[in-house]
Structures are given as C-alpha cells and as structure tokens.
Amino acid sequence: MANRPLPELLAPAGSPEALRAAIAAGADAVYFGGGAFNARMRAQNFDDEATEAAIRLCHAYGVKAYMTFNTLITDREMPAFLVAAEKAYLAGVDALIVADLGAAAVLRQALPLLPLHASTQCSAHNAAGARALAERGFCRVVPARELSAADIATIKRESNTEIEIFIHGALCVSHSGQCLFSSLVGGRSGNRGECAQPCRLPDANGKYPLSLKDLCLAREIPFFIENGIDSLKIEGRLKSPQYVYEVVSIYRRLLDERRAATDREMAALAAIFSRSGFTDGYFKGKVGREMLGVRTEADKQQSASKETTITLPPVPLALRFRMKANEPVALTLQKGEKTVTVTGDIPLVAQNAPMDAAAVSKNLCRFGGTPYTVAETDIDVDAGLMMPVSRLNALRRAALAALETEQRASAAQLPPLPQLQGTATAPTASFTSLAQLTPKARHYFARCYLPLALYDDRAAALTDSVAIPPVIMDHEWPDITKMLQKATERGAKHALVSNIGHLAAVKAAGLIPHGDLRLNICNSYAAADYLANGMTDLLLSPELTLPQMRDIGGARRAVIYGSLPLMLLEKCAGRELGGCTACDAGKVRLVDRRGEKFPVLRLPGSHRSVIYNSHPTVMSDRPRELMGAGLSNGHFLFTTETADQVDAVINAYQRATPLYQKIRRM
Q1: Which residues contact 636 (CB under 8 A, 6 or more apart)?
Q2: How far apart are alpha carbons 170 and 120 in whole angstroms?
Q3: What is the structure's pLDDT at 565?
Q4: What local confidence, expressed as pLDDT, does residue 304 receive?
Q5: Secondary structure letter of residue 308 according to DSSP
Q6: Beta carbons of 61 and 371 less than 8 angstroms apart
Q7: Could you give the angle at the alpha carbon of 635 between the alpha carbons of 634 and 640, nearest 5°?
Q8: What is the pTM of this model?
Q9: What CATH class does 428-563+617-655 carry?
Q10: What's residue 661's pLDDT?
Q11: How many other CB atoms are found less than 10 A from the CB of residue 594?
Q12: How far apart are CA 366 and CA 459, in angstroms?
C-alpha cells in the first residue's frame, strides 16, 4: 500500500468561504455549483464572477475545480445550459459533474475538450454501468452510495474509467437519481436541485423510518488506497465553512498517513456533525434499522463549538525583471513548475531620478488582494534608466493574468435538436403480480411486463415481456444472467430496462430492450442516445409536463396511469413498517404526518423495496390532452390493484370516464 498513489480528496463548497476552508484544510479538489443546473440550489453557490474567482483561487493553490451541472435538463433549457457550461470551460474549470445523458451528449459535441464526470444521479451501480458511461464520454464515474466494499472493488477493477466514491456526509434513503418523492408530492424536484428532504420528516407515529445516519468511511482509508480508487468525496455543499474545514482536515491527515481513523478521530468527526452517530452499513453489506438516525438535541449541542479562524497561507512566487537600454523590459513570474514571461516598452533615459533595483522591486512586488507573495527576486536594471510606475503596474498585472489563465478557445454551438422518428403504436403496462394479467389486460396492452424474478412457466404462457430489476449489483449478475437465459428459453422477447448498465446484458440475451421511466429521459438528446444504442421505445420522465413531453418526438411514452415510484430503497422498508408477512402480501403502507398512505412493495427476488405515490396518476377522462402531447398510447403502472381493479382501469380509459377521487394529473 505504501507505493500506491493516494486518492484525490474532493471537498464540497457551497459558498466562497467554504471553498477557502476546503483549500486551507488540504483538499486536492473542490466541487461547487453555479447559479443554475446544480443539485443543491439551496446552497449559496457561485455566480459567474464568483466562479471565475473560485477557479483562479483553486488553481493558485494547485487545487482542481469541478462544477456541478448535475440536474435533468429539458429541450428548452439546453441552450442556456450550454452557455453556462461554456462559461465554466472558458474560466478554466477542470471538469463538469453531469447527471443528464442528453446534456453529456451536447457537451461531448460542443465542448469536446471539457472533461465530464458522471454524477451519482446517473445511478451507476455496477461495472457495466461505469463502462457504458465511459463510452458516452465520461472520464470519471461516481457510483451509487449503496455499494458494498466488494462491489466497489469490482467496479474499479472491471471498468475503464476513474472511480469516485462518497466517503462522508448525508445519505439519501433512496438510490440517487431514483427519488421522486419531493417532486411529485411536494412540488420540489430533487433531480432539479430543489429537494425538500421529505425523508427527514416524521411519519404519523412520530418516527423517522426514512432518515439515515450520515455516512462515515474514515476507518476504510486503507481499503480505498489498496483498491486504487481515484477520488474520495465528502458531501456537504449545504454545510458551513467550519464543517468543511474540520472534516477535510481529518481526512487529509488519514490519507497522508495512509491509515484508518482512531476512536478519537471518529469522535471528533461525530462532534462536528452527526445524526445519532454514523453508518457504514452499505459498505459492510449490513443494511438494516441500525442505519436509521435523526439529528438530536444532543447532537446539536455536541456540534456547537466555537468557530476557528480559517486563513490561507500566501502562495510564494519567484520574480525576475530585466530592464536594459534599448530593449523591451521583461518580467518573469514562476509558481512551482509554471513560468510566464511578459514584455513591455523600451525603458526611458532618466532625466532626474533613475530607477534602481529597490525602486523597481517596490512597485513590482505589490500583490495585495491576491493569494500571492514574492518569495524570491532577481532584478537586473541598467543604470540611468526609468519607466513610469503605471507601466510597471500594468506589466505586473499582465504577468499575473498570464500566470493564472489557461488559454482556452471555444465557439460552442448547440447541436441540432434530434428529429426522432417513429411512434408508440399501442399502450403497454407493467405489473407486480401474475394475478393482475387478466384476459382483458392481455388483449388491451401490446406488452405486459412482469418482473423478471416472477417469469416462470405460468407467466410465460401469459406474456412475452419482462421487467429487468432497477438495481443489479455486480455480485448479483450471475443470478440475473441465469434468469435472463431461462426467460428467453421460456419465450420472452421484450425487456423493460431501467438502467444504462443493464442494456448490454439484455441485448446479449437476445431480448428487445424498451426504456423505463427510471432512465430519467427529459430531452431529445437523451432519447436519441438511448434509441441509437438499441432501445426500441422509451418511457419519459414523469417530472416532465405535457408540453415538455410533446417537445420530444419519436417512439416515446409516458405513464398515463398508476401510482408512480417515489423512492427506490436498498433496504427493506416493509420489515420495519409492517413486518415481513404484511410486506409479502403487499399490505405495507407508509403513513405521513397528514395521514397520506404510500404503498410499499418489495421488489421480487430481492430485499429492496419501492415506495409508491399515495395517489395514482389518472388521465382516463383527458384523452384530448394525451392526444395533443402525442401520448395516446401510454404506459400503465399497476402496483397494488386487484384483477378486477385492473379491468376497471382499462374500461375507464376505453370509455374516457373518470377514475377515483384522489388522483394526480400529468
């Protein structure tokens, strides 16, 4: 381990003050968001001027600057998105963290030299997903936080890209990129940077079944070094500069000393911020109720420490200056291995007061208001010469600008909006049980998707379509591969695919892939990418409005009926909310403070569970609206419905009559 390179230590910055704290604490890189298109819109963030200053400051200290553009982008937003990305590129940003595959496709064409990092919002949870993202131009992937140590090692070993792992900070209970709770229930989209954190709220019983403790992997530093992980990321763009400074300082020490945290250091981290302690449950493969935690009064009192003054040491420069008769003056600045030289006017013959080295040094060594100080000078001035102070000041400013600026040229143009061909010719549906596949359903729907784990001989007699699990960790692939093989042997022909990392396996099995809503398709560029890579048709993100869906052409659908999935949980919520028997019977409900009841279903063949909306999306009596958006042949999502209820839903859509009283519209 002693000879292996250290991972990059990547720190959060929600404000300029937090950015300075991260640099002072020893971060190798800092990530921050601009005024739009980032997943922490509640942070102070950085406007254009602050962004340029932040990047200059980072580079002055040899720290990399990454910007988050990690929200979903619509077609109509794409021009503004590209303008913002180009500004970041021209300012010298080292990489953009991106969540939208359509946005990545645009950047790949418009700014091909700009490095792209795939956000954890891309839902990469296996090596195949990392490879698929690398094929789309990403040089780094931030995989799901739910990975175990073994799966992290596999994803690094079997992918062809840099891997960045979250090691400290708040945990979402849902898989990142797979949470619609805040959006569909509260009107504030987590995928658009406005999460209201409903998972931190109590339920009807005053308990907190969805609030996880903060992640802390400070004891696992040797593992990450040994397995060649490229970057270790600390969460916290909503945290204070003091938090950033103290947490980064501890991890900096652990990395430099290549060791695990001691009990004292773990206690120090908990004193900075915790929710009833920390968890490493996902990493250890121990997913259970011990991972739950809330911010108690004792936690708050423990964290109430006095503020530490955070200062940055000056950056030393070497300065050389030459002023010779009949030659342009020359000023050279050197910072580390970087050297720049600028030239100015030919000096004048002094009439009264010639300049000596001391006079020149007094004017050239003024770097107030910058991170720099002159540590070494070499000034060679011929006797009897002078130069106006204003010219010396201009020369110094020009040299500093050359030192700080990486010359980048760009004439980014938005690629033409893809003109997608084809249409969805008949409605389709997803089911959670075999009993829901009524004769009426099998006749009405072109494809009836049943979970892969339920596709036995009885199912094969009723449908030729399977739904691939939304999460497949690398250790689960052997079982999934066997299921795919048996499904094709039984006559399966179609597969509903909900993750980019599953597409290759589905095609290899000989199944026709269709895109699920979990792909988060919000623009034509993302749709074109999936269609070009083998998808036959696509389900659009339910966060889009009908006009936004209309903007995206081609063979696309939307969920026009059903209780939409709000959260995808790695842990089994049903066991805690109602017990295993109730969970298997589909009778578990999460009841919130207002009395709303959200169905919780276990994914067949796994311990994972899904929380669904308390009110179904219903458009049965709005056929003209669907037709106007080109979505007449939409997708139906059946969860807890009985066979009779399935038939009743179909009847309502056939007759264009209302359904239920409490519903959600598109």
Answers
A1: 427, 428, 429, 430, 445, 559, 560, 561, 562, 649
A2: 14
A3: 97
A4: 60
A5: P
A6: yes
A7: 145
A8: 0.94
A9: alpha beta
A10: 85
A11: 8
A12: 79
